[in-house]
């Protein structure tokens, strides 16, 4: 186990499929949520201005407590350009490709895998396509009424088309359907094809991580993958392993946190052979400390699952899975406001907490404890940092991190 006390950390964060967060907005959101972290943990933090490149947006964070100080080099891996290119396609094409993606995941056994491992995620998968089918049925109904009233099939077809266009350009948008369709289209294409923009970008960042693991001035190199970003994080770490095949990442300071993960979204597709091979290599690499945080209330992650066991690697104890409660991270009033918004609940994995909780994103990326310590301490950072923000220099980790019992798991709120 690496030293549990961190003074310098390098973070590579890969976010999910989110077109609403351009690089500048990502930085503003980070600063805003960091202020909540300060109040919750009696800490102080400063953030530099962002530096933008084609591959990432980076900034430095200095977080301090009464007896600790951490410098974090934070790098948010960009793929907003790829997401925006997907969103620029005309709606008719997105709908058509979305329907093809739906049948791709059904025929390839993914839907059955979702039903078997996490029925909530199966409902999340079906949601955009059921709504789309309902819109088509409504448009057909209006077209049929118009055809009967006018006794003209041409007028009925026109009325049906206009009704569908209206539905696609009004209710469809505030129901997040365009983004969800794009998400599934990207996922279907990712399984079988390499992206000409994403592939070289991941290669370049893999070289940065590989170089960082060989330096002695960084206490921890942390890769965080949120949502579909956890899939890309596995892909990225597999490239790091290939770069370091001879050395085997000896004396590695490399840690991986998959939070609100969609890894099984891809891995349960029969055609995802390339990704499953990468997942097995990363899962078997003992030099990478891998922890996964899951929440039952989040319909966009696979809660109470072991991704490696689902693809045939059983009993290896990786990743270390921890079940967290979103309601324990925020105030009761705030939780009541967000519990019906599945996007916002999902985003709490990368947001600031206003209550001390076992899981805290900003403590993980800016705090004084290594990921392994946060996972193995009984109450996370709360086991080592008191109400005044003072860090205890000696911690007593759990020998084997206990999982919450069924009664401790969060009831579904969506």
Write the layout of secondary structure elements.
Layout: E1 8-14, H1 23-41, E2 44-47, E3 51-52, E4 56-65, E5 68-77, H2 80-87, H3 91-107, H4 110-117, H5 119-150, H6 153-168, H7 171-174, H8 177-192, H9 198-213, E6 220-226, H10 229-243, E7 254-259, H11 263-267, H12 273-284, E8 289-294, H13 307-310, E9 320-323, H14 332-338, H15 342-347, H16 361-366, H17 371-376
Parallel strand pairs: 1-5, 1-6, 6-7, 7-8, 8-9
Antiparallel strand pairs: 2-4, 3-4, 4-5
H/E series, N to C? EHEEEEHHHHHHHHEHEHHEHEHHHH
Low-confidence stretches: 399-414
Kindly report how far apart the N and C termini lie. Answer: 39 Å
Number of H/I helices: 17
Helical percent range?
40-55%
Q: Estimate nothing, just give the exact number of structural domains.
A: 2
Query: What proportion strand?
Result: 5-15%
Keywords, please?
414 residues, alpha/beta, 2 domains, 17 helices, 48% helix, globular, disordered C terminus
Structural summary, described in words:
- The protein is α/β, with parallel strands linked by helices and about 425 residues long.
- The longest helix is centred in the N-terminal third of the chain and has 32 residues.
- It has 17 helices and nine strands.
- Helix 13 links the parallel strand 8 and strand 9.
- Strands 1, 2, 3, 4, 5, 6, 7, 8 and 9 form a nine-stranded mixed β-sheet that branches.
